[in-house]
Design a protein that fits this description.
two-stranded antiparallel ribbon; about 20% helix; three-stranded antiparallel beta sheet; alpha+beta; 5 strands; Alpha-Beta Plaits
């Protein structure tokens, strides 16, 4: 299900205030910790975003009121020859 070369979801803990909108928009990847802050369901710091959830992840990033979410590429850097 997870594409090792696809996007990963990062949470900026310094910005996040635990409102939980991202959890509502992306329940397949995120759940709440004991204090109401988002954590990944698989326990990773930066959960991989499967292609079929990319649209939902984009929406969660765009709607985060604290701008605490970001999608990054996990593609390896290719060297020039």
């Amino acid at each position: 299900m997870n594409d090792p070369h696809g996007a990963r979801l990062q949470i900026d803990w310094a910005r996040c205030d635990g409102r939980g909108l991202c959890i509502e928009l992306l329940p397949e990847l995120l759940t709440r910790d004991d204090w109401g802050f988002p954590i990944s369901r698989d326990g990773s710091r930066e959960p991989a975003v499967p292609a079929e959830l990319r649209r939902h992840a984009d929406r969660a990033v765009a709607n985060c009121p604290e701008l605490a979410l970001r999608l990054t590429s996990a593609e390896p850097v290719r060297r020039r020859r």
